[in-house]
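Try this one yourself first.
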């Protein structure tokens, strides 16, 4: 398999009290996660680089192949499973099928399942559809994107116990936006922002998207790409240099994000801007 998890830094201020107990299960325990990947360095990244507890989860087990994953799933009863597709022996699709046979979708014990792969093959998606897959994610995996997903999943199962008045909401979001405008070249971690603002990450993520229409990470990417467009028009800086300057760890990730937002690659955008 290919790809890897990436690193991050810090940020922010202000505090308002907020009761976050509603983001755990009713008995106060964290939801359990099983990660399945045949790459040792990827498994190590899942252990050390994802802030599971901030979103009401705990990493209860990791497996390097499908057979081991089935045994661990029987032992731990995970609420959420991340699995690779191409693995020796029992592959990801066979693992999903067997998990669903034991715990059918709709049953209380059925885990949510997220597929992760370095191969954007539609056939995988098509074959996985009958098994009610939560998400199909492409490698390389970025921690902020995993955090966004965990936030979404938690929000779907939990509601905050109290909400801020509209004026306080607007003030909080305004401060977050001002901070992001000043720090978007850094790696922004929503759990860090949430702690400093005094909210649960799930609640802050919900509130931010409700007010802006974007997740925090989507907003960061749009700020970065706006500057990238300016740099591509005004300078002769290499694309790799621009990518690094804006906080991307490699030019491929930058190019992919730029094309998703602008509709063309950075090179195509620069050529078009200069013709104009």
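Now uncover the answer:
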């Amino acid at each position: 398999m290919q790809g890897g998890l990436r690193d991050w830094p810090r940020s922010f201020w202000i505090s308002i009290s907020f009761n976050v107990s509603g983001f755990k299960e009713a008995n106060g325990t964290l939801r359990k996660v099983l990660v399945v990947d045949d790459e040792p360095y990827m498994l190590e990244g899942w252990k050390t680089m994802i802030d599971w507890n901030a979103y009401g989860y705990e990493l209860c087990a990791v497996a390097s192949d499908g057979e081991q994953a089935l045994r661990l799933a029987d032992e731990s009863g995970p609420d959420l499973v991340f699995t690779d597709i191409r693995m020796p022996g029992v592959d990801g699709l066979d693992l999903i099928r067997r998990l669903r046979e034991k715990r059918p979708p709709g049953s209380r014990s059925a885990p949510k399942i997220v597929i992760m792969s370095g191969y954007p093959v539609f056939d995988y998606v098509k074959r996985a559809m009958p098994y009610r897959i939560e998400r199909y994610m492409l490698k390389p995996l970025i921690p902020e994107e995993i955090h966004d997903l965990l936030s979404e999943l938690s929000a779907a199962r939990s509601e905050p116990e109290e909400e801020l008045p509209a004026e306080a909401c607007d003030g909080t979001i305004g401060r977050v936006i001002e901070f992001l405008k000043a720090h978007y070249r850094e790696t922004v971690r929503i759990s860090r922002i949430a702690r400093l603002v005094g909210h649960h990450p799930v609640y802050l993520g919900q509130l931010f998207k409700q007010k802006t229409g974007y997740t925090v990470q989507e907003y960061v990417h749009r700020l970065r790409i706006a500057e990238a467009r300016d740099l591509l028009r005004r300078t002769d800086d290499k694309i790799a240099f621009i990518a690094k300057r804006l906080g991307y760890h490699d030019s491929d990730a930058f190019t992919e994000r730029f094309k998703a937002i602008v509709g063309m690659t950075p090179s195509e955008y620069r050529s078009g801007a200069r013709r104009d």
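Discussion: Residues 1-24 have pLDDT under 50 and may be disordered. The two ends are 42 Å apart (CA to CA).
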